[in-house]
Amino acid sequence: MPKADLVVVKKSQYSLTLYSKGVALKRYWIALGPNPKGTKVREGDMKTPEGRYLLDYKKTDSNYYKAFHISYPSVADMQRARKLGVDPGGQVLLHGQRKGSIMSNETLQNSNWTNGCIALINADMDELWQSVAPGTPIEIRP
After folding, report:
1. Class of domain 6-141
2. Residue 125 CB-density burial (10 A; 0-12 exposed, 13-18 middle, 19+ buried)
3. What proportions of the chain, in percent to the nearest 5, are helix, strand and coil?
4. Which of 66, 67, 130, 131 is packed most tightly, with the most Cβ within 10 A?
5. Strand pairing partners for 47?
6. In terms of DSSP H, where are the helices of the chain?
7. Are strands 118-119 and 67-70 parallel, antiparallel or unpaired?
8. Strand 23-29, strand 15-20: pairing
9. pLDDT in tens, 90-100
């Protein structure tokens, strides 16, 4: 598969699509947190951020099969949180399944089981791992 230069998540459609030069390469089924509507505002709200970020590095010490770190919070996220007097949170990941999980792919992906991260099944995470380099933009849409 060609290298992706953009990752687009559509939370309402539970989809993640890889793009290269404006052309969709592949679409994946994702799981989110238990409170998926709306953007992340504070630590512990179980929401996935919305906006444009970077998949800034591959996280090698994750509790998940494989994981990319998402560059949340942005300056705007931090300013919003400061105005609200809350901690914006952090450590938002795009990751595979929890290490040691015995649940089926279908069971996991039919539930919002993350704490606000974006989750793929491990086989899909393997493809993304090969196709996406650190520094690739990710757009997370409602």
Report:
1. mainly beta
2. buried
3. 20, 30, 50
4. 67
5. none
6. 75-84, 105-109, 122-131
7. unpaired
8. antiparallel
9. 999 999 998 87
